[in-house]
Records
---
Amino acid sequence: MSSHHKPTAKRALSSLEKELAAAIELAGTDLEAAGKAYDALIDAPTEASISEVDKKAKETAVYRRGEMYGKAGDGEGLRELLRRIRPFFDRIPKARTAKIVRTLIEIVASIEDSLALQIELCVESIVWARAAKRTFLRQRIEARLADLYLQQKDYQSSLTLLTALLKEVKRLDDKALLVEIHLLESKVQHRLRNLPKARTALTAARTAVNSIYCPPLLQGEIDMQAGVLHAESRDYKTSYSYFFEAFENYDSMENSLALRALKYMFLCKIMMGRPSDVNQLMAGKLALKYAGREVESMAAIADAHKKRSLEAFEAALRTFHVELGEDPVIHSHLKSLYDEMLEQNLCRLIEPFSVVEIEHIAALIKLDVTVVEKKLSQMILDQKFQGVLDQGTGQLIIFDEETEDQTYPAALETIQNMSKVVDSLYQRAQHKIIDCPLNQTANRECPPENAYLTQYIKTTRVSR
């Protein structure tokens, strides 16, 4: 027995779906006309009885119009778009509203030099979300705003916002958002150089993340921050392992932050005094994928460190100023590395001399006299070597290191030990007198040797 199935009738497109299809077709030939078509669809009145397919059509139009504004670099157009679609938010679920708002803010972020506009957009959205009682959305936009303040280097505003948000989110027990807030707090405290609080916040983030599913990108951020904080403690070996984990997470997701993690891995090898390892890492399969100026900049620093050449080091900093100077983590550690190399080279140069002209040292090290003089004075104050700067003659006078005379410390130690012996003898004598069985009788005295010992110790203590 065979059964015959009737073909399913194709659903007729709604008017909004037809308008969307026409706008998409126009986008391939006439962007201006397509933009107007999208605007007409978005601005169409949203009735309470709007169907689900029309909601999806309007939502798609919003995304496509937002992408057009983003490609054109029109941040103001995106801001106006976000204002225009707010009545539409009353007709769709809150989760979809949150997705649209966050997507449009991310599109604004893709526009160059749009940090100030992103902050204004977030502030406006927070005000609207608070008035519309969209708590879930408001909290996430506030977390985004705190991140934007961090990028703007307005650390106090970021910290103030995070502190208030943290109290609120803890009551709601939103673990996912709690992880993001603690991680942001750790980054802000690190920039403020409050390392103990930065570590505490990172520990809180790792504790919270244990009870939820952690996406690879978020795990990569946590590993990156852990690596940064370990590097601040000069534990570069542990730091390298964290950066490697972060690099693998980002690389698996094809995220651009993988390149930054790779640079931090190179930095750790250089700071550990193993610049030759950088060339081995660069020859690896994964590193070849990210070849470019960013990787070349770290290779130049590794080469300069290997040659112990300050001239090559400064040349690398000038050539790759953007790649090395704009990252606060790399900039901080390279500054420390430069100071160490400068001190080592100066100590090596002045070692044969007792008196030497500062200009001669500057000529040997190929640096400005003022820089060398300032560094030498700092090294003298830090007691890296014994000497004085004679500014009248422009000379550095180096003293021989004085060997400490151990006679007086040894004599003092002997006296202290003798004092302990005498105290011990006195205590033992006291116990013998008390425990003496003859001392229990009123008419009899202890043997003369005990009395003699007691008198001797008392005399000694008085003389001391």
---
Amino acid sequence: VTVLKTQSSYITCGVVPSSFDINGSQMYNKSGWHFQFHSGYLYSGPPTSYKSKQYGRKVNQGECVDVVVDRDENTISFLMNRENKGVAFKDVFDSNDDLRACVVLCHHNDRVHIGPLQKA
């Protein structure tokens, strides 16, 4: 996820189970496993239930965050500008769980790119 335009970096990315409620309010701390760009904090639903756990630093416009899910090790990690910040979540999903990528933009005019950027 590359931040192309943002007012304040109120963007989260991570992984959610297929049961994630896209119409819910503040679901980033009720379901799934997320990294919040504005604060560098981790948020999650059960079993870890992280709320504002420090993990990284603020992600600014032009910077990139990658989400790495390792099904063999049962871990979720994040890379900031290609630098691995270490395991953020461990043993929080079952190997047969149906997982989905998730990006939440909180401000109307925020814009991100999902996937590898093409060089001009």
---
Amino acid sequence: MKMTSSVDDLSSVLRNFLLGHVLPAESAYESHLAELHTVSERFGLTAVPPVLALLKVESRRLGLWNIFLPPSLHPIARGVLGKDASEYLPPRPLSVSQYARLSEIMGRSPAIAPEACNCSAPDTGNMEVLLHQGTDAQQRRYLPRLLKGDCRSAFLMTEPDISCSDASNVSSTLTKVVEDGHRISYRLNGNKWWATGFMDPRCEIVLIVCKMDYSHGTWTQYASARGLPANPFEGQRKRQHTVVVLPRHARGIDAVRPLTTFGYDDAPNGHAVVKLLNVPVSVDDIILGEGRGMEVAQSRLGPGRVHHCMRAVGMAQRAYEMMVLRASSRTVFGKEIGRHGLARKRIAESRGAVESARALTLSCAKSIEEAGVDESLDWIALIKVEVPLLCSKVVDHAVQMHGGAGVEGSGFLARTLVGLRTLRIADGPDDVHTETVGRLEIRKIKTEEGHKRSRL
């Protein structure tokens, strides 16, 4: 897939930024975090490595800031930023396919490069939601600091007590109440976990998925007196949930403890168990409206999956290059590792896996551009399953080739293998997306067969 010359230029700029600034900064980044040991240190105000601020300045200077924004949202972001737009937005927006190519480059340093360009999850998805579905007031309140990189955000959906692979199980409640006989408000209660970014000391904004509760007496009486249905979405399975946007430090929102993935705490960003206790919510905090939570949540996932998968390809490509270098620089049993048949087999398999993962993801990006997210659900589910598997295979081969260095916890390979394994669960497990692919393929064939028969 050929990129336009201007995107080629941007790709070259990003690659040089990665090689000249980001990769050399990895040791300083890790050394800073290695000096922090307690939870309060690793997620405190001084936890963010200072080198990151320097990288952000250079990224903005090079025009690499907020390059994730698609053409449809670029004008809205420009309006939100006003006179600061030229400093914080790229000269021209990129299509999904174009940005996918750049995501692969950033994936080579997954902990640093995306944030250095203000292109980190969950901030990118949250910004897209607010730009596309937020009210003017929500955009003015929350977007300027996110677009400028002055704060971070979190997205709270997963819960510890239910199976969130079925999103309709989300059970944190948003109870509708009536105060002073006429004023509508809400109370939010529940438990969340795997709230990525919530532990970050810079996190100021949270988007929370919750289930509507219309059982409070003040509301049922209010609705009855006016001839309104107490639950306007009763029996509508996909209209039971709502997304709200709130300040991270709103009353009743509290971190219970940080979580680790296979022992990694991912400081300073981190993941958290979160308690929601009688959190006050106003009508103005609701995104898009009551009962539209699944619509909001799904809107984050199409392009977001492309970003995740192309970053995974970047990780796998770096691991592949490390493996080939290892094979050509170490000797075992009297000859280079790369002269042994099994090593060559693993290198060949890994090359094929990287190319396959890249091609699948770019095909998905092209489908989203040409047909839209709703008509690309098969591709979106397919890459969610296949790309982490393909990339994990590459990294696993690289780990094997590196021996003890491959499983050493502070190294790139061990961290990457954990990240890719986690990606097979994040945003829904493989099983759910495999089911989706199979269901959509059967439907597609049945539809095609029906068309054929109708023409006979």
